[in-house]
Design goal:
mainly alpha, 8 helices
């Protein structure tokens, strides 16, 4: 993958497959990869089906998953998992607002916006709502002291700043069972 090109196909097992590279397609893939109700192998099978046009043979699935992972990280190969400070769904409004500002257009109205172009816009976001929120999340995660204005902002926007934990259907059922036992 060249950083100077926007890939629209992938060669997997010697076969060239068209890929779904629009940012909305990729965000949908992330949604499935983060689904706590599905085992990892199912999440990856769904992700592969959403990303590639055509069925990937079993013998080539590992290569296809590696390509997809590299594509998601915009061609970077040595990315290490970082603490989760952003949620594509929870933060969607703020992300769109800041990306629109950088792109100088309403990105959701575009018929196609390549994932890598979207991420270039995303990475160019400067000071604003999103950077404030991510900064607060990082400080809270590390247990760092908040400035006065940050404490005030956090108090007013706690529901937006705190990342919501995603529970599986099984975990939610157990929570309901416990609430009933406790009379809540």
């Amino acid at each position: 993958m060249s950083q100077w090109c926007l890939p629209e196909t992938a060669e997997i097992g010697g076969v060239v497959y068209p890929i779904h590279a629009d940012f909305r397609d990729i965000l949908e893939i992330f949604r499935y990869l983060d689904d706590p109700d599905q085992p990892e192998y199912i999440r990856w099978r769904i992700a592969l089906a959403l990303f590639y046009e055509g069925e990937i043979p079993e013998k080539d699935r590992q290569e296809a998953m590696e390509y997809l992972a590299r594509f998601l990280s915009c061609g970077e190969q040595d990315t290490k998992p970082a603490p989760r400070l952003l949620d594509w769904e929870q933060d969607a409004q703020i992300i769109v607002a800041d990306v629109n500002k950088v792109a100088a257009t309403e990105i959701r109205a575009l018929p196609f916006l390549h994932w890598w172009t979207f991420m270039a816009y995303f990475n160019a976001i400067g000071e604003g709502q999103l950077s404030t929120m991510v900064s607060l999340r990082e400080k809270l995660r590390r247990g760092k002291k908040l400035e006065k204005w940050e404490r005030e902002y956090y108090q007013k926007n706690k529901a937006r700043v705190d990342l919501k934990k995603r529970y599986s259907a099984e975990e939610l059922a157990e929570q309901e069972r416990l609430k009933k036992l406790l009379g809540e």
